[in-house]
Amino acid sequence: MRQVAYKVIRQVTAEDGYANLVLNKALRDQRLGGRDAAFCTELVHGTLRWQGTYDAILARSVSRPLTDLDPELLDLLRLGAHQLLRMRVDSYAAVNEMVTLTRSEVGQSRSGLVNAVLRKVSQKSFDQWITTVAPHSDDDLFGYLSIAKAHPRWIVEAFADALQTDGYELDDLLDADNEPPRVTLVARPGLAEVDDLVEAGATRARWSPYAAVLQGGGDPGRISAVSSGRAGVQDEGSQLVATALATAPLEGTDAKWLDLCAGPGGKSALLAAIGSQRDALLTAVEPLPHRAELVRANLRAVPGDHRVLVGDGTKPTWPEGSYDRVLADVPCSGLGALRRRPEARWRRTAKDVEELRPLQERLLDSAITSVRKGGVVAYVTCTPHPMETRAVVDTVLAQRGDAVLEDARPLFPGVPSLDGGPDVQLWPHLHGTDAMYLALIRRT
Question: Where would I find the SAM-dependent MTase RsmB/NOP-type domain in this sequence (predicted)?
Answer without folding.
Answer: 159-444
